[in-house]
Specification:
Blueprint lengths: L10 H9 L2 H7 L12 H6 L22 H15 L7 E3 L1 H9 L3 H6 L5 H15 L3 E5 L2 E9 L13 H9 L5
Antiparallel strand pairs: 1-3, 2-3
Helix pairs in contact: 4-7, 5-7
Length: 178
């Protein structure tokens, strides 16, 4: 709009532009004898230039949520499990596999002894569903697995953003391993 010539403006716009000058109007709006405000030298020294400022913090309302600490820990363990999978071919994984690998506890033996791992398995299933979508029922080594997830060949967990916001902040900074 600043590059427009008077020929491009309509008659009314040209008349208004000739009649009012914005720079002078701002100065004459209120009569005053006060001196113009001076800038703060302390603030000029303190404030970084725009190009040198860091990344903006997460301020969106949906990001201001406290993560479940157990869910964050299980996502770390799930990512450690997934980074160890070969990228040459596809895999079928389940929450029980991740749980048994991370804890060394056999889930079937735990149930026979009267123990329970359901809360942990629910958290792992939630994480796996976030990464791989809807689970399906299959057989792995002759054993029925009601919730298995397909990990395609060439999948790198390090390229996939985490589900929990705690790990997402680490991922954004580049310090999340894996």
């Amino acid at each position: 709009m600043a590059n427009m010539t008077n020929a491009d403006l309509s008659e009314v716009e040209a008349l208004l532009k000739k009649r009012f000058n914005k720079e002078e109007a701002d100065k004459k709006r209120v009569q005053s004898t006060a001196a113009p405000a001076t800038g703060s030298t302390r603030l000029d020294q303190l404030v970084l230039p725009d190009a040198a400022r860091p990344k903006m913090p997460l301020t969106k309302g949906k990001y201001l949520v406290r993560d479940n600490p157990q869910e964050v820990q299980w996502e770390r363990e799930t990512r450690k499990f997934l980074v160890r999978l070969s990228t040459v071919h596809e895999h079928r994984v389940s929450a029980i596999m991740v749980y048994e690998w991370a804890t060394g506890i056999n889930v079937q033996g735990l149930y026979l002894e009267g123990g329970n791992a359901n809360s942990d398995l629910r958290k792992i299933n939630k994480i796996l569903k976030f990464y791989f979508g809807v689970p399906f029922s299959t057989y792995i080594v002759g054993r029925k697995v009601p919730r298995a997830y397909n990990v395609r060949g060439g999948y790198f967990i390090t390229r996939h953003r985490p589900m929990t916001l705690t790990l997402w902040a680490e991922y954004g900074e580049g310090v999340l391993h894996p």
